Here is the input.
Amino acid sequence: MKRRPVLFLLIPLCIGIILVEHFFPTFIIRNHYSKHQTQEQYYKLIIKEEANPRKSTIRYKAEITHYLKDNKWHKTSGDIMIYFSKQDSAYNLKYGDEISTNSKIVPITNQKTYSTFDYKRMMKRQRIYDNIFISQGSWKKLSENKGNPIIAKSKQVNHYLKQKIINSNLPKDEAAIAIGMSLSDKTLMDETTRRQFTSSGLAHILCFSGLHIGIILIVFDIILKLIFLGKYKLILFRKIILLLIGLSLCFLVGLTPSSIRVVSMLAVLILTKYTGRSAYDSLNSLAVTAFFFLIFNPLILFNLSFQFSFLAVLGIIIFANIRERLVIREKHTYLLNQITSTAGMTLSAQVFVLPIILFRFKTFPTYFLIANIIVVPFLSVVLITIILFLLFGDIIFLGTILETFLHYQLYALKYLVAFIDSLPYSTLHF
Here is the structure.
């Protein structure tokens, strides 16, 4: 503890957040829209997240910015979930669009008939308390580009890249997997594919996460070391390049909060790893990062994405010395050493993440250890192929080759996951 004094602040902070969230109101927001609700109230809303198609509706996350009173618009605040019918034209809405509606605000409730999951509490921890179910003709689009211009540009690039994969010759299910793995959008995946990846203990590879960013940075680090011959004098230059690559990946996936958190944590590891510092320094730096995230947004402590990313990196740090002793190092086999090291880091992360999976989802993927050992090293090849396809897919001959390689890789991945899912007792339920 003396070597990591920030823990004296971080641990009491986490305990305090848990107690306050459990016994007291979770937040105080000035001028929250709930203070101005009436039976027939008009609101202005700004779209904050892209469309999420569901079975019969289209869901968006939005922020209420104004309410109408005495024929004048008054400022207010507060996030809310809005739902459109699939027959509506809401697919045309995008981040930063401003709309108005007089549809009734409905409190979020749990559907106990279908699930025991406390959805209401989960949304409450995100400071979202209500839904708006918007019927046709009860809303209109007012303007565009009301959001953050950097985020808006990021989402435009993300949408362009998704369309590039969708318009390719890849089968629909393979394109959906590629988009989820590289661009953090799982809305195109069918339920069967999601279930198979979940029961195989590989659901984490369907969404662009810290694992993906870490793998890509490791691959680029290998390339940079080969180019610069691993010279110690160029270590700072390599670190800067890796951080820029990490930020670029954040931009490509739409600057989602989860990707920003992951890159921030991985940036800490990069800064400590290449300065020759010990795992204790990395642990202290990670604690500092978590402390600042919690200061700015205390309720992020209950966010699954934050828990997964933080615990995964924590596992990588804690088991660093053990991996160094267990991983076989062979001379003149640098690439093999990097692959085994990557597999070791993945398993370290999974050990710390597994308790959250058991507690939250009440399921245990029996073959998750074997599945991750086999798939994670292969995942690096798939991710790099996807990146190359996005960069050079428009070049006629080269694009065809990359698309063919990507098709076979995704097909093999699907077959492997389906095989693991078909094994007896692939998933245990509690």
Summary: The longest helix spans residues 334-361.
